[in-house]
Amino acid sequence: MAPCYTQSSLALSSLGYDVLATDTDHVCDSILRRNIAANLRHLPVSNAGSVQVRVLDWHVPSDAWNWHNPSHIASRARSPIPLTRVPARKLGKALERAGIQWQTADWDGVEIWKGIGRQ
Fold first, then answer.
1. What is the pLDDT of residues 60-89, one digit of tens each?
2. Which of 39, 51, 63, 72 has the fewest CB atoms within 10 Å, measured from its CB?
3. Coil, strand or helix: which one is 115?
4. Residues 6 or more apart from 85 whose CB is under 8 A from it?
5. Are residues 3 and 112 in contact, defined by beta-carbon separation less than 8 angstroms?
6. Domain coordinates in residue numbering, the chain
7. Cα–Cα distance for residue pair 4/111, rounded to 1 Å
8. Per-residue pLDDT tens for 104-114?
9. Are 83 and 113 within 8 A, CB to CB?
10. CA–CA distance from 100 to each of 28, 74, 90, 95 (Å)?
């Protein structure tokens, strides 16, 4: 299952819209580009629009955005905090402890990331 922003981008593209999907460096590099590429081939070829993926960090002031860069609209040099992915097994156990009765298929493909405090 693709994240909602991937699904929205693909749904709009399937309706013939040209879509610019944006997120932070980390999300674009770790999942967004990969999900768009993997699922774009499933769209109807006849009237599908295009999907572009570019980095857009909302912490960068809009007057510093560059719409002409093919990969980055705005990005800081590095993430403000390091991130690490929560393993699926830990996620499943946390859901179970919280009393959430999801089937594995309900959250298959979901990725949860957490910030790691600086040392």
1. 888 888 888 888 888 775 555 566 778 888
2. 63
3. strand
4. 111, 112, 113
5. no
6. 1-78, 81-119
7. 12
8. 777 666 677 77
9. yes
10. 29, 38, 14, 5
